[in-house]
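Would you mind giving me a polypeptide sequence along with per-residue structure tokens?
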Amino acid sequence: MIGAVIGDIVGSIYEGNPLKTTMFPFFGMKADYTDDTVLTVAIAYSILEGVDYAKSMKHFGRKYTAGYGANFYNWLYSSENEPYNSWGNGSAMRVSPVGFAFDSVQKVLDEAKKSAEVTHNHPEGIKGAQATALAVYLARMGVGKEEIKSEITERFSYNLNRTLDEIKPCYHFKISCQESVPESIIAFTESEDFESAVRNAVSLGGDADTMACIAGGIAQAYYKTIPQKIISEAKSRIPEEFSELIDKFNKKFNISLE
């Protein structure tokens, strides 16, 4: 899941400052982790410790202030755990640990649904989380990009046959799963390595941190390598607790980035 965290950090300064190019400093001076990272760590913690997803998200969300959306913020500080029927891409941004931790398609789909519907119980919110987690899982299992595209298209009816050049001219900031998850997956499928996947996602000029988070998680699973200098730079920008939890997660699930 470090790939998702890196994508979040890299994209953080371009969410309100959209780019249409891949030529930008990979770690901008003010680049920092956002709610994408906090909640990705929360999902990983739930999996590692067997803690309810809602409980873990509320624990980490309240501990680390990171620019939460209004609906999530209200849920976060509510005494209740009722979902709010969101179709936003928050369900997809946090789900990559599911794709790394579970060992069958059905289990990945089931757990992605569970992690989403805590807040995002709208069908599109669940679908976005499932598509992202499944893409991570298939990439991790060595499935080729064309087969990943085919599987995601067949299951979720996402149009993955567009190119980045076709998408970019009219694309802008969109928070729905159905209008950002497919584009994030395409950013991965057109990549040549981990870094280019993140750059592709940011270059679409949309919800940059979340889309790079999604693409980064899939790219980590597929390429199975991230330059150490990139990992080190990302870890220098997150709390030590996050870094330790990522290392623990990698060890338990035999995730290597050599």
